[in-house]
Every structure is written in structure tokens, then in C-alpha cells.
Design goal:
By secondary structure, this protein is of the alpha+beta class. It has eleven helices and 47 strands. This is Acid phosphatase.
Length: 767
């Protein structure tokens, strides 16, 4: 279902920001799926190797972590060389990543799903040319060929690798195929890749110099294994090719028989199951201890006795850990002194048939120690004092009422602090209760009905772990004059807002990709009106003069609830949304309002929009021309500040230009007098795209993905999103292109998506 206007059947979904409805999302159906393997790599770091040096440098953009199928979905693929970095427990690259983001990368290591019970033994990088959607030891050979000789074409590099692996012009090997499973499964190529992985790890200094020779030797070894009747489907069979003349220009291959050291899943699962069944380990409480049987945990056909090394990070917890024979013993303690997530790592050496150590193999057991959290407590004396204040309030039907309560002393937390207060509910029609972030609750409004005392005013507090709620009793509402219904601030007026979506209203799917549109909406007389989307809305806002899908609304206790009825897959559906005015947005445009659209009783995200009172203010963001001067190529938006729920007025400027190396486009984010970096961009936005009818590359259609760089300009930093259009041969004059920045689902309620259009005139201005 395509995302259209607020009124159409799919608009109900659009209000919720349904990812599946928007072609610009990073969904697998519309994004690019990158797969990494010799066996599928889980938790490998995919990055853009911008300097093409075959290693991850801390300044290079990380695109994400692969899943258990070795996959990562991108909204659009970057134009530079793709690369994959494997991680091992306590490895150098893992430590660098933890220094950048401990929450994300601590305890994260790569697993080759050929051996799902153990961590990878090597930190290693594989690359792939940008035209490939897979990254493997085979694509790595092509990337290495291209890096060694920048003058060589990708096709020539593929031909060299194809020849080294035993292919021919008549029967070429599909170097960019998924040889692990599926229609392109190839056991011999899979085994070749496994041998190359081990060989690259054992020959770090000369592998790239002699990569095609290593490939030829690996292919010959696979042929030998097949001819001798070996089971090449055994993932533990990992011969290693070494170079007996590492200082020469040519490879002198020596192949050593190696059966990979593996973790016995049965033994590992039994130990993990025993840990899982332990009572919760809690800081401040006693721990009874446990013994884990690890006999036979590691297996290696090349060595009869495997020695195990124990490491852990439980020091300081009060729990002592040691290995006693085939047991890992966690000794009892009277008091556990530290909480957190901890690891017990067991490591053994993988040796080849000659007894040489090739690598270490690890398996990790995780232990969680919980903090002993006491919930917040109600201070009864303060509750009684606040109740006496409330008892003295005078409320009358039809009369405006406003009072405040300071609830900062209502709760206490003995082992921490109160992190949040909230006013949850007030049971008198016409009144609202709001907490301001500083424990001050404002109760205001005009009671619409008389009523007895006893209506609840509920207030809660949380320490970040547990919430506690109390109810104060509101006084009676005396009879008075029934007030006339008050209009909601959104009623009776046409509003204009920008939306990103794929449906262009022409019932033709050819160009249904995500673009920016102007939508209009009007709430009047209980009916929701809107425009009918057409290509005209790429640059113009049209009247909200059509009711669609029986769209209606009502105002209850100051809340505007819009309801839509529509059919999807032959089923009649009804969905409702609260259209909440989060605040005035006069800094963006006179009369504008910040809106949050929340689904009612739906497990969907809320989304933030700017409603413009004047169509010209919305149109100024979609009528930009590429040769416009700087003062026309920007727009103000609210950007997150350092404090929660605080916003800075930010300026977003953008450009589309043609230079000596082709076309390029960018968006800059700038906050006057403050730094604004890619760290904030990455926290609040999931991806950026530049889209247009004629944007076609070998790996995407209609979209170019953007990458963020933090730039220091004189005194302050700003964030710049760059779109590499160098593979685009030409842009059609008068074509409209869209800049879209997609908010992370968890932040879509707090930050609006970035939405601008620009028309290519044949010339660009980037001043």
C-alpha cells in the first residue's frame, strides 16, 4: 500500500509513518540487501572503505551490523568500496568500536554461522566492488585486484579472478553469487572461500600482493579434496595455504592439513542452560555458586588433548571464578558487590596437523547481575498536604480554572533518584493536567459538567525502573452555565504540510518511489477534507476540498481524533489518530504549528509534522531551483538540543551542482552559535536519500543514499550529508528531485523528517 495523503486509505497508515508503505524506507523490498559470508557472518561490521586500503579506519562510515543470515539492509548503497570487518572478543577492532560506542559494541563479536556456537577466530576485512551486493573472500579477490592497479577495469579484475579459480570465458564463475545456500549454492566455491579466509588470516603481510595466486592454490586444494573423497561439506575441514617464500614476488604455496577447532554445541548448551536456570543474581544479595561441566567443550581432529584458558570480567563483584579440571566453578559469596553484564570467556588454540598454532577459538558465557532496585515511595505527609490544597480549589461549570501543584516532594527513592514525574489523568471533563518536566503540574481548562467531589487526579513517578502512582481527590464542580463548545485550534482552516511518499495518484507504478509532496488538510464540521494528490503537488499546494474514505473527526477534552474507513486486501478497516498540537512554530513561519499525529490503539509510531497556515511557506521548500542563490536554498527546522525535549532553531541548506567529476548534492545542518555534528544526526535519523525519475545506477533505481560528515567551519561544527552522483551521466533539465531524511522510528514523534525539493535548471549554485 503506497503512502498518499492524510485522507486516502493509505493516509491513515501514513499518519503512523508505516515503514512498509514508503519506498524510501530501508525495508528489504525497496532497499538494498548486503550479504556477507564465507559462511554467513553474524554481527560483522559493514562499512564504506572510502580510502580503499582494506581496513576499517575510525573515520570511515559504519553502515551497520549483519544479522544471522549475514544480511544488512540499506536504504541505498554508497558509491565507494563496500567492506566487512569481523570482530573477535577483546580484539583490537572491537576495542576501537567500544571506545566509539560502548553500549552498542561491548560484548559484540562476529560469528561465522558455519560454526554458530563460537566467535570468529580472526579480525579480518573482506571487500567488494560497489556493484556487488555480497561481500565474501571471493569478492575480496576482485576488490584487491582493482586496488592493486587503479587503471584496471572491474571486468578485467573479475576475469583475472575467474581464471585463478578455474573458470573460463565459456563457463565463468559467478563471483558475486551467494554460494552458501539457495539456487546458487556451490559447495566447491564455499570450501574455496573457507580456505581463503584461513589463508588470509595466516598471511597478513603478503596475501593481498599474491591474492590471485592464493586463489589458484585454494582452488587446486579443493580439487584435491574432491578427488580424494574428502567431505568438502564439513565446515571444520579448513586447509591452510602458507607462503614458503614470503619475500619473493611469487607465491610458493604450502598446504597444511587443518581441521578447525570447534565448540561442542551439546556441552555449550548444557552449560548455558544451567546458567539460565539460576535464580536471579542481585547486587547486595547472596549468591549460592554454580559449577559448569565443560568436558569435551572444544573438539579438534588435529590434537588429542585440547587445553582451555579461562578469562572473565567478574572481578569486583565478589564472585570468584576458577577452572578446576573440567569444571568452571563460580564460588558462593555472601554479598554480590557489583551489578552489570559480565562474561566468562573460554579459549582454546586451533592447531594444524603439524602442531602449529593457527588461531584461538572462543566461546562466551554471559552473566547478568541485576541492581537491587527499590521502587519510589509515596511521602504520605506530602500527599496529605497536597490533598488539602486541592480541597480548597473552587470549580464551577463553565468557568475557566487553572492551578498548579509542586509534586517534587511527593515521592522519594532510597536507592537512586526520581527520573520522571507525570500527570496521568484528571477525571473532570474540560480539564487537562500537564507536568512541565520540573515536577510542576498544571491543571487547567473549563469544566463542562457539574459533578460531585471524588474525581481522580492521578500523578506518577519513576526511578527509571519502577513507576508508582497515587490519586488525589478533586473537589466538586458546582453547577453553572454550560459553556459553548470551543473550537479546536486546527478547526475551520486549511493547513499545508510536506509529506514523503511514493504514490503519485496516477495509478501507474512506473515512477512510484518516495518523493516530497505538499498536502493540504482541513477539519471542519466533523469532516476531514484534503487534496487529491497529483504531480502538481511536487511544487504546489492545492485546496483541501475532498472528503475521502469517510474521514471524520471529533474533539474530546481538547483532543482532536480523526477516523478513517478504508479497504485493504478486500477487508474493511477503521483507524483513528490523535492530531495533537505540540506547540506553535512561528519561528519557522508565521502561524505555523508543530503537530504530532498519534495512532489510537495501534502499535505504530507517532510522527511529527509542521502545519503551515500559508501555502506559500510550504511551497518555498519545494519550489527551489538549483541555480537559486543561497538565501532561497534553505529552510528552518527544529533540531534536538543537548537537553531532552528541548529544541534549537536549525537551518538546513542544500544544493545540487555539476562539477568536473560529475554531479553532487548535499544538505547541511547548522545551529547558530552551537556545534551540530553527525553524532546527533545518527541518533535521530536512520537514513538520507536523494531521489528522482532519472537517478539510475547499477545498484539502485531512483535513489542515491547520503553519508554524513562533521565539518568544522571557523568556530563551530556543522553536519553535512553528501550524495555521490558521480555515476549519473546526466540530469534532465526541469526534473524535480527530493531530499528526504528519515527519522528513526523511536524518534519520529520528536523530530520531523527532512523534506525538500529542488528543480535542476542545468546549472547549480553552491555558495
Amino acid at each position: 500500500m503506497n503512502k498518499v495523503s492524510l485522507l486516502a486509505a493509505s493516509v491513515a497508515i501514513a499518519l503512523t509513518g508505516c515503514g512498509g508503505s514508503d519506498s524510501g524506507s530501508s525495508s528489504a523490498s525497496n532497499g538494498v540487501v548486503i550479504t556477507g559470508f564465507d559462511g554467513y557472518f553474524k554481527n560483522a561490521v559493514v562499512f564504506e572503505d572510502t580510502n580503499n586500503n582494506g581496513q576499517w579506519d575510525t573515520q570511515e562510515s559504519i553502515l551497520g551490523l549483519t544479522d544471522e543470515k549475514g544480511q544488512l539492509t540499506l536504504a541505498a548503497k554508497p558509491g565507494k568500496t563496500l567492506a566487512l570487518q569481523t570482530l573477535v572478543p577483546n580484539g583490537a577492532k572491537q576495542k576501537q568500536l567500544i571506545a566509539l560506542d560502548a553500549k552498542k559494541y561491548a560484548g559484540t563479536y562476529t560469528v561465522d554461522m558455519d560454526h554458530p556456537s563460537q566467535a570468529m577466530a580472526h579480525e579480518i576485512v573482506f571487500r567488494a566492488p560497489s556493484s556487488s551486493n555480497v561481500i565474501s573472500p571471493i569478492t575480496d579477490l576482485v576488490a584487491i585486484e582493482m586496488a592493486k592497479d587503479p587503471s584496471i577495469t572491474e571486468e578485467d579484475a573479475k576475469a583475472n579472478v575467474n581464471k585463478a579459480l578455474g573458470g573460463s570465458e565459456e563457463a565463468p564463475i559467478d563471483l558475486y553469487s551467494d554460494f552458501v545456500e539457495g539456487a546458487t549454492k556451490n559447495a566447491e566455491l564455499h570450501k574455496t572461500a573457507q580456505i581463503l579466509t584461513e589463508s588470509k588470516a595466516q598471511n597478513p603481510t603478503n596475501y593481498e600482493k599474491k591474492a590471485t595466486e592464493f586463489a589458484q592454490a585454494a582452488n587446486q586444494e579443493v580439487d584435491r579434496l574432491v578427488a580424494s573423497g574428502e567431505n568438502i561439506n564439513d565446515p571444520s575441514l579448513r586447509p591452510v595455504i602458507t607462503d614458503s617464500t614470503p619475500n619473493s614476488d611469487n607465491l610458493a604455496p604450502e598446504t597444511v592439513v587443518n581441521n578447525k577447532l570447534t565448540v561442542n554445541e551439546t556441552v555449550e548448551d548444557a552449560a548455558e542452560d544451567k546458567l539460565d536456570k539460576l535464580p536471579k543474581i542481585v547486587k547486595g544479595a547472596a549468591f549460592d555458586g554454580v559449577e559448569l561441566d565443560i568436558e569435551g567443550l572444544f573438539k579438534d581432529k588435529d590434537q588429542s588433548l585440547v587445553s582451555t584458558k579461562l578469562t572473565h570480567n567478574l572481578a569486583g563483584t565478589g564472585i570468584e571464578v576458577e577452572q578446576v579440571g573440567n569444571l568452571i566453578v563460580l564460588h558462593p559469596t555472601a554479598i554480590v558487590e557489583k551489578s552489570g553484564d559480565f562474561e566468562i570467556v573460554l579459549t582454546a588454540q586451533d592447531k594444524n596437523s603439524n602442531g602449529d598454532v593457527l588461531s584461538t577459538v572462543s566461546t562466551v558465557f554471559e552473566i547478568e547481575i541485576e541492581s537491587a532496585n527499590l521502587p519510589p515511595m509515596v511521602v504520605e505527609a506530602e500527599q496529605a498536604r497536597l490533598q488539602s490544597i486541592v480541597d480548597g480549589w473552587y470549580l464551577q461549570q463553565g468557568e475557566l480554572f487553572e492551578q498548579t501543584l509542586d509534586v517534587s516532594g511527593l515521592f522519594q527513592d532510597k536507592d537512586g533518584q526520581i527520573t520522571d514525574y507525570s500527570a496521568d489523568y484528571v477525571g473532570i471533563e474540560g480539564l487537562t493536567a500537564i507536568e512541565d518536566g520540573n515536577a510542576i503540574i498544571t491543571i487547567k481548562g473549563t469544566p463542562t459538567k457539574a459533578g460531585e467531589s471524588g474525581a481522580a487526579l492521578t500523578i506518577s513517578a519513576t526511578d527509571g525502573h519502577t513507576a508508582v502512582q497515587i490519586a488525589l481527590s478533586m473537589p466538586e464542580v458546582k453547577e453553572g452555565v454550560t459553556p459553548p463548545p470551543t473550537a479546536h485550534p486546527l478547526e475551520g482552516k486549511t493547513w499545508y504540510y510536506l509529506e514523503h511518499g511514493s504514490d503519485d495518484g496516477d495509478d501507474n507504478d512506473e515512477f512510484d518511489y518516495s518523493r516530497v509532496w505538499c498536502e493540504s488538510i482541513k477539519f471542519e464540521g466533523g469532516v476531514v477534507y484534503g487534496n487529491v494528490r497529483s504531480s502538481e503537488n511536487r511544487t504546489e499546494c492545492t485546496d483541501a476540498d475532498t472528503q475521502k474514505e469517510q474521514a471524520t473527526y471529533k474533539v474530546e477534552n481538547g483532543r482532536l481524533i480523526a477516523t478513517f474507513q478504508f479497504e485493504e486486501d478486500g477487508e474493511s478497516l477503521t483507524e483513528s489518530f490523535e492530531v495533537d498540537v505540540a506547540g506553535n512554530a512561528d519561528e519557522l513561519a508565521k502561524g505555523a504549528k508543530t503537530i504530532v499525529q498519534r495512532p489510537i490503539a495501534l502499535d505504530e509510531k507517532a510522527e511529527r509534522y509542521t502545519y503551515f497556515a500559508d501555502a506559500a511557506n510550504a511551497e518555498s521548500r519545494i519550489q527551489v531551483k538549483s541555480d537559486d542563490s543561497y538565501d532561497k536554498r534553505f529552510g528552518y527546522i527544529y533540531l534536538p538540543a543537548e537537553q531532552d525535549n528541548v529544541y534549537d532553531l536549525g537551518m538546513v541548506s542544500f544544493a545540487l551542482v555539476e562539477g568536473s567529476q560529475g554531479y553532487k548534492a548535499y544538505i547541511n545542518f547548522d545551529v547558530e552559535g552551537k556545534d551540530f555534528s553527525c553524532d546527533t544526526i545518527d541518533e535521530f535519523y536512520k537514513s538520507f536519500t536523494f531521489s528522482g525519475n532519472d537517478l539510475t545506477t547499477p545498484y539502485s533505481q531512483h535513489y542515491i543514499g547520503g553519508s554524513c560528515n562533521t565539518i568544522t567551519d571557523e568556530e563551530y561544527d556543522y553536519a553535512s550529508i553528501y550524495f555521490d552522483l558521480s555515476q549519473i551521466q546526466s540530469l534532465d533539465v526541469k526534473n524535480i528531485y527530493s531530499f528526504i531524511g528519515y527519522a528513526n522510528d523511536k524518534n519520529a514523534e520528536y523530530i520531523e523528517a527532512v523534506k525538500f525539493n529542488i528543480e535542476w535548471t542545468g546549472e547549480g549554485d553552491n555558495e
